Amino acid sequence: MNDVVRSAARVLDLLEYFSEDEREASLAAISETFSLPKSSALGLLRTLCVRGYLVKNDRGIYRLNEMFRLHGFSWGGAKLTQVLSLAKPIMEQMASELEETVSLGVMTSEGKIRLVHQALSSQAIRYEMSPTMLLPIHCTAMGRMFLSFKNPAQRQALLARSPLSPWTKYTVTDPLELEALINQAGARNYAISADEVDVGGTGVCTAICDSNGEPIAALNVSSVSARFSDKKSAIIRTVLEQGQRLTALFQAAEKG
Fold this sequence. Notes:
Blueprint: H1 6-19, E1 24-26, H2 27-33, H3 38-50, E2 54-56, E3 61-64, H4 66-71, H5 77-98, E4 101-107, E5 113-119, E6 134-135, H6 141-147, H7 152-159, H8 175-188, E7 191-194, E8 201-209, E9 215-224, H9 225-255
Antiparallel strand pairs: 1-3, 2-3, 4-5, 4-9, 5-6, 7-8, 8-9
Helix pairs in contact: 2-3, 5-9
């Protein structure tokens, strides 16, 4: 008895095909390579694009989504793909207006913050994070924002996975003080982390949520701390406004 489901096998075949050597291919090439009618090949490719595993350029060439290539099935899938498509132009506008770096991050299953996109400041001196670096949740604005959506037991479990290590002399490591900051982030819908990950960098963050009120991603502005006090009100206002805008856009897209 053959237990292989042909359609599922075709999807896996395509993912394996595109995973090799950063391969790119057109619809015609996929149809020929896999001996599929173009209509069937197009259906599979469209499904993988909608779910975020493949991307298609303006020449009709398909390739593996780079986030999926780097992070595998933990990368975020269709919801994150939708958020990214909505967020990128808004983030570029924010970076231009605020002249500070704007980032989009997610929390991994291991309780770390992973960046998925950055719109860099045009300033000669700017705050920039490595896209491959996993950041802690206890001392980043993004981490505290995600933690504010968790109940006490869930927070404790996530924080227990990594020690509350001081990244700088300003890092908050006292559990009670940290709990107060997380609660504060939840109450006002934004979090701030100043000089706690890197001395000289301040982050302001809010969450982008789905229709169930669950956070999908965190929208963060990273400022050079020396400039932050003059821009604090504008940064907080912009982060909140654009975070709410992205949440509304995403929830509308969810409803179709």
